[in-house]
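Sample pair:
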Amino acid sequence: MQKVLVGVGLLGGVLVAVLLLRQQPEQTLADSLKQMQAERKAVAPESPKPKSVSDLPVASEQGPWPVAVIEDPVFEFGRMPVMGKNSHRFIVENRGEAELELKAGNTTCKCTKFGFGESAESAVDRVKVAPGEKAVLLINWKAGDAPDRAFRHGGDVHTNDPKNPLLKVAVEGAIEMPFDVMPQFTWDFGSIYDKAASFKGGIASRLHEKFAIEKVESPSGKVRVEVVPMTIEELGTDSFVGGFTLQAEVAQDIPSGLFSEELLLWTSVSEDPVRITVKARKFGAIRLQPLPGTQLNPETLTLMMGSFRAAEGKEFQLLVIVDEKDMQEPFAITKTEADPSFISAAIAPLGEPSGTVHRYRLTLKIPPGRPTTQRTASNPGFVRLQTNHPSGDAISLGLMMYSN
């Protein structure tokens, strides 16, 4: 009986072991590696990361301490020209009882640099100052290429003064153009008919109190300029310290159409001239006006032809007003020059004359089926029409178009 019970007990134990083995999932190689890494991490914890070390001056925990003083931390330089360079010496004094350590920090702009020393070449970014002594902080800066009436730049100075660990210095003022031209750089004389056109401009400076206009050069010789010193009242209107009123005149005998040239003013304080663009439009015996459906820029006498299909072509019409006084034959076009070359021009009377003034319809035509063409502001086309008018006046137009 005991043998039977022992056998049954052994059989039960085997069955329990088999059931337990079936319940445990198989352990993969990846699971084993993870378990090993976890055990290793528990045994050997990660070492702490090294702390970053600052090179800034550090105040001692107990005195005596230094006292850093800059009497005038902001320097007002007044005015300077664009692209000009300047420098200033700040004085840092140690009024404490311990050695003062100073280190130049960041500046507010790449245009600004500073260091301790009497010159930019010998300046260093770190210095020690004994009690009662002083150090020179030299700042150098460069102006940009545009006016800036609120220029302010500087930087930081780090110290071991516990009450003033950070000092700030700055320079401020106005960046000015050497000269202001009024109106600015372009003088439009408007339309000229049977007499010269005049214009009043000026040139003045906030930097140069005493300068002279040594020469005025008109490449065509058609522009005359009278130079008159500005009054105190005229200078004071915009804080100028020196300047001149320029009474200019464009001659009546400029060529018909749009007149444009660059007037050069040579001054006593610059090797380069001041440049002023002069514009005028001469309306002689022949005048042009756009008819409905045609766009003409009166400033540049450019015909805006727009976009159209090359296969269909297009035409444009303008009103031509001609004073035919002293003419012995009917007004006519004698020669046509054009770019693109396939543009044709025809003129026909329009309405009845008014005294010696006659009106004509000018038709510019681009025939259908011509090559696609593009003429832009950087590559404009043109039409020049010579006439039989005794004045020698011609019709000259710029063209902008896109045929596709």
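Helices lie at 2-23, 29-43, 232-236.
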